[in-house]
Amino acid sequence: MVVYAAVAVALLLVGARAIRGEEAAAPEFAAASGGGKEASFSVSGSGGDIVVHVAGAVRRPGVYRMPMGSRVDDAVSRAGGAAPRAGLEAINLAARLADGQQVVVPERVPGGGVAIAAGAGEEGPISLGTATVGQLEEIEGIGPVTAGGIVAFRDEHGGLSSIDQLDQVPGIGPATMESLRARLQP
Fold first, then answer.
1. 172 pLDDT more than 90
2. Which of 10, 42, 87, 118 makes a 20 to 30 Å CA pair with 106?
3. Among 33-37, 151-155, 178-182, the least confident range
4. 169 closest CA partner among 157, 153, 156
5. Selected residue with higher pLDDT from 160 and 118
6. Where are the beta strands (DSSP E) in 1-158?
7. Is the pLDDT of residue 24 over 50?
8. Is 186 in contact with 162 (CB distance < 8 Å)?
9. CA distance 115 to 124
10. Which residues contact 60 (CB under 8 A, 6 or more apart)?
């Protein structure tokens, strides 16, 4: 009788965990990274997950595993939320995330402007998932109309997982695609 009771309790616990969902069942680990900062990641058994890097003005920058279909806002939340100095108005929080994407939350500067977060300057690639029209215009061969078209196309299609998808945007030819490959990341 005791054995049957123990089996029943075990089944109830397993069932409760399944009802709460995979998110609650996935263990979360923290790993120390360089510079005294803490990076965290979660391990999940789902094959539909993506991995994103959240950097800039967030409380816990790091690499995170997210469910497929997650938005930039979900990634910022997973990274502990925006830091007090964050300029969230400069990024599209509603954009869908793509596997391997870097989300950079810029910092506000005195005077109401937004500064590009460290490491996201002119030399490095711009995240296609969060690039603003202004950032896209800085790329050789991209004007305001094409930059606006890229952002509209990205928003209309729920984000982009590959730079190759931009060949569907009017005004982007082979030469522009090569410039984009050098300056953008998915």
1. no
2. 42
3. 33-37
4. 153
5. 160
6. 28-32, 38-42, 49-56, 62-67, 102-105, 107-108, 114-115, 126-127
7. no
8. yes
9. 15
10. 38, 39, 40, 79, 80
Question: What's the token pair of residue 23?
Answer: 């998110």
Per-residue pLDDT at 138 exceeds 90: no
> Which residue has better confidence, 43 or 135?
135
Which H/E stretch holds residue 184?
strand 184-185
CA 91 to chain centre: 11
Residue type, 147: A
89 has a pLDDT exceeding 50: yes
Give the integer Cα–Cα distance in Å for 25 and 63.
19
CB proximity list for 152: less than 8 A, separation 6 or greater: none
The structure tokens listed for 118 are: 């460290």
Whole-number Å distance between alpha carbons of 94 and 85 = 20
**CA geometry: angle at 17 spanning 14 and 21, to 5°?**
140
Q: Please give the helix or strand (H or E) that residue 175 lies within, else none.
A: helix 174-183
Most confident range (mean pLDDT) of 23-27, 65-69, 151-155 is 65-69
- Burial of 180 by CB count in 10 Å (0-12 exposed, 13-18 middle, 19+ buried)? buried
H/E run at residue 185:
strand 184-185
